[in-house]
Amino acid sequence: MTGGVRPWKLPQSVLVVIHTRALDVLVLRRADAGTWQSVTGSKDFADEPWHETARREVLEETGIDAADPNCRLSDWYLENVYDIYPRWLHRYEPGVTRNTERVFGLQVPAGQPVCLHPREHTDWCWLPWREAADRVFSPSNAEAILLLPQWAA
User: Fold this and answer.
1) CA 78 and chain centroid, separation
2) In 10 A of CB 30, how many CB atoms?
């Protein structure tokens, strides 16, 4: 590390399914790929608690503060381990090919304002959970959204 800047992404990330009580799901269009997804992002440092990574990424990408008393951030204690897409391998230390993704849900009030980070996302929409699962690019994201009814109950 030089000057406090980490040269490589850590292969530990969060996936946060943001939803309303009615199970409408927020999906975001990636600026770099044009695909749709939930909030995702890597830990800033190895010892960063999962819930802090989730809260930080949600705030950075959507402007939503998961610590707001009207919101409920839930760790689903699910982890997906998958091969990093070849197009993203250059972001990781040489030899790193797999990522561990921890899944969270974030219930927000209906009508929750969204303020996108323009370098990360170009559009957003709220969709009923089944439609959201069909819209997202990542299989692990779709699977997480399909689990939403049991976690939100």
Assistant:
1) 13
2) 15
In whole angstroms, give the CA distance from residue 130 to residue 10.
Answer: 31
The SS3 assignment for 41 reads strand
Instruction: Give the tokens for residue 23.
Output: 């199970």
Q: How many whole angstroms separate alpha carbon 46 and alpha carbon 114?
A: 29
Answer yes or no: is 31 within a domain.
yes
Tell whether 35 is covered by a domain. Answer: yes
Query: Is 0.85 surpassed by the pTM of this model?
Result: yes
Look up the domain containing 91 and give its range.
Answer: 12-152
**Residue 124 near residue 116 (C-beta atoms within 8 A):** yes
Q: How many domains does the chain have?
A: 1
> What does residue 106 show for φ and ψ, rounded to 5 degrees?
-135, 110
pLDDT tens-digit profile, the chain (153 residues): 445 566 899 999 999 999 999 999 999 999 988 999 999 999 999 999 999 999 999 999 999 999 999 999 999 999 999 999 898 899 999 999 999 999 999 999 999 999 999 999 999 999 999 999 999 999 999 999 999 999 987
Distance in angstroms (rounded) separating the CA atoms of residues 26 and 36: 10
